[in-house]
Specification:
Layout: H1 2-26, H2 29-43, H3 47-77, H4 85-106, H5 116-124, H6 130-154, H7 171-192, H8 203-223, H9 229-239, H10 247-267
């Protein structure tokens, strides 16, 4: 009887010790990080998040359809459109107008990124979580591919143009050029969405579209003025050429990250939730 009592006391003490260890383990950084990751994953599949992915898909589709379609139209009407200055102006206008509209229609839902580089910059700045950024990327890339496929099918298999660089340029130089342009674009996105400048009205998307169009005018003959990895990816996949494709990822992503860090930590260091944070963190 005495032995049985000692055994029960031993079991009771071990049980309490086990509970204590469990409580201590749940408070460790590992379990805290796992809980944080679970929370972020759950946040990325809420109804609001799903609506934001759909908004990014629609806005990116509209943008890519207009920009790639304008190049195809120029080449259809003018066989030597590649060396015709007027085609550059047409492409820049199409880029500016379509981007302004694409940002405007999705700004209050998803933040109006329309661009994996913009999404990357927002993730670097902590304005959206990594899982949400990944889903944004998926939506944007699929939208770009679908837009290019639609153009190819409806134009009776007309060649879908891809972004490329001239032979005299190096991949490094092209990446720097794309990075500088994307820096200007993302920096404008940050400034346009800064609540300290007032609510994001029509002027914000217009400013974003204007800087994009201006960059196309500055770099069209050299890199095509992409600034958007999704556009380059969709046209490359459907057009069947990934030559120098890394230029349109490396440059824009680095330029976007630099713009995010500079705006949030140097120029305007006060952290204020931006409009793009509606589906963030």
């Amino acid at each position: 009887m005495h032995t049985n009592a000692n055994f029960l006391v031993h079991i009771f003490l071990m049980s309490g010790f086990s509970d204590t260890l469990k409580a201590l383990s749940c408070s460790t950084p590992y379990y805290s990080s796992m809980a944080s990751l679970t929370s972020r994953l759950e946040h990325s599949v809420t109804p609001d998040a799903l609506r934001s992915y759909l908004a990014e898909f629609i806005s990116t589709f509209i943008f890519v359809f207009a920009t790639v379609g304008s190049v195809m139209s120029s080449r259809k009407m003018v066989p030597d459109a590649a060396i015709d200055p007027s085609s550059l102006i047409v492409n820049a206008i199409a880029n500016a107008f379509s981007l302004a509209v694409a940002v405007y229609i999705s700004a209050n839902i998803s933040g109006g990124h329309v661009n994996p580089a913009v999404t990357f910059g927002m993730a670097v700045g902590g304005h959206i979580s990594v899982p949400v950024a990944i889903f944004y990327w998926i939506s944007q890339l699929i939208a770009s591919v679908m837009a290019c496929l639609l153009l190819k099918v409806t134009t009776v298999s007309q060649h879908v143009p891809t972004h490329g660089i001239p032979q005299e340029m190096t991949g490094f130089g092209a990446s720097v050029l794309e990075g500088v342009m994307t820096f200007a674009l993302v920096y404008t996105v940050y400034a346009a969405g800064d609540p300290r400048r007032g609510p994001l009205g029509a002027i914000g998307p217009l400013a974003i579209g204007f800087v994009s169009g201006a960059n196309v005018l500055a770099s069209g003959p050299f890199t095509g003025g992409s600034m958007n990895p999704a556009t380059s990816f969709g046209s490359a996949l459907v057009g069947g050429s990934f030559k120098n494709h890394a230029v349109y990822w490396v440059g824009p992503l680095i330029g976007s990250a630099l713009a995010s860090i500079l705006y949030d930590n140097v120029v305007f260091p006060v952290q204020v939730p931006a409009i793009a944070d509606r589906v963030g963190v």
